[in-house]
Write a structure and sequence with these properties.
single chain, about 375 residues, mainly alpha, two-stranded antiparallel sheet, 12 helices, 2 strands, about 65% helix, globular
Length: about 375
Amino acid sequence: MTQIIVAGVVAFVVSIFLTPVLILYFRRRGFGQEIRIEGPKSHLSKSGTPTMGGLAIVVAVWLAYVAAGLVGQFTVGGGGFTASGLLVLGLATGLAVVGTVDDGLKVFKRHNKGLGIVSKTVGQVAAALAFAVLVLGFRNSDGLTPASTSLSYIRDFVAVTFPVVVFLIFIVALVFVWSNAVNFTDGLDGLAAGSVAMVMGTYVIFSFWQFRYSCFSSNTEVDLSGCYQVRDPLDIAVLCSAALGACLGFLWWNAAPAKIFMGDTGSMFLGGLVAGVSVVSHTELLMVVVGALFIIEFVSVVIQVVAFRTTGRRPFRMTPIHHHFENGGWKETTVTIRFWLISAISCGLSIALFYGDWLANSTG
């Protein structure tokens, strides 16, 4: 528990104090966001707002994770750095690099278009494929690897086990969807940061519970009838706590009216965390419930594109769907708060499902 608290506190402190430094630096350099002309007219006033603030989130998460890992070396019952945590961080950082290149091109070209869709997709696929290959390695003393080739909800569906090639394709698709879903959600002040904070907070609970009731726990007083076969649950909880703290610290400056945007640097990084955590915690399907808001945003874009290309009509005023409501007359803060409520409800529902599964499988 000490490591989890340390990770959250360090990430929050680093993020909340580093972000204003980036704001000042980017303003002096003229690194401002270019706004889509076809977007909501109320957003035109945001033109020039510093972007690439996601760098503060990336740095905060890394420093917090390292600090918590060092603390774990001197804590009774604590843990250090693990394959699961490092692989998820590696995936998220790889995606953040893609996002930084995209943001950089937008800034220097002074246009809202950065990397082309092909180049961006290649970068996402490369990071995802490396993660998919490595996550099946690093077997520990209990014989567990960070990921399982079985499809997972709260536990593995042993009856649904993928061949390795199919697993690789599945992971690449999963990372592609989540990284883009969080990226699409980052269109209103504070929306992505606040929503991801809720998701990461939920996964702190899940992962710590998996650690407490690990099938390989040495605590004989714990009922292990409903135990979890997850390789590094404590380290996953530490990483999620770091992400939670970083998002909250950044949200202080990103809440409406935003002083800085996270840009693709931050949204791609957070999308990578969401995808990676779902894989190493064996909860790929449960993450669909936890991150329902991101799925709604992603699906709205898909529906819009497919409908327009097949019928020539657009079912929404504009996508991602938060812009549909803005163009319908809702204030930006109203959309953000109501979407936060959707995220909070989905996180609460997922906790109920998770705990219900444990009750169903536990005899204690």
